[in-house]
Description:
By secondary structure, the protein is of the alpha/beta class. It contains 9 helices and 8 strands. Pyridoxal-5'-phosphate is lined by residues 33, 35, 56, 80-81, 170, 200-202, 216-220.
Amino acid sequence: MATADNLDCIKKRIEQAKSLYSLACDDVLLMAASKSQSITVIEEAIAAGITEFGENRVQEAEEKWQVIKPKHSNIRLHLIGALQTNKVRQALKVFEVIQSLDRVSLADSIYKELQLSQTLNSKLQTQELYIQINTGEEPQKAGVFPEEANGFIDYCVSKLKLPVVGLMCVPPENQPPAPHFALLRQIAMRNNLAKLSMGMSGDFAEAIRMGSSCVRIGSALFGDRI
Ligand SMILES: *Cc1c(COP(=O)(O)O)cnc(C)c1O
């Protein structure tokens, strides 16, 4: 089974990266980026022992995971793609973790839906939020710019009391990722946020050396996406 073999290899590399560097977080979560993967392939990954999965789109995630999730009690789903405000209610019902909180209007909308669900006593899945930082300040990419990060984090945490646990970034493709990981770590530390979601198939060992607590692995696990 290709997925299981890939997983063995990735796990070894994670352990190696953890053992080599003092910044490394003890507890690195391996999240499988399962966007565009079929239910069959995802079931294989679950059989191989993966419990954390990331999806980019609310609709796709709901359709796939309403079939898979009832059969597995310990799965946690992460949203790692952009979230439109009109999909917030749906997202809060599907994902245990939302990693793409990236603007005031979205924070406000999440706040409203959380309040509403308390009033109505309705059950939501989401327990943790990550704020996405656009460390490379790329105009086409989602995320808060580094110089706006302190203010935005404070707004979410102190004013809205949202359950923000950490930061997430996707470094620019054509640059060495290390400075971006270092920047993310700096912003998290000065804002007392414990968790760092950073590192993908091509750079997860490096991210772990820089203190990542959640690596998001797609192609190294499932093969190249079509
Ligand atoms: C698809 C995706 C990943 C995984 O990318 P790979 O390079 O295939 O490992 C990680 N993070 C985000 C936000 C993604 O969209």
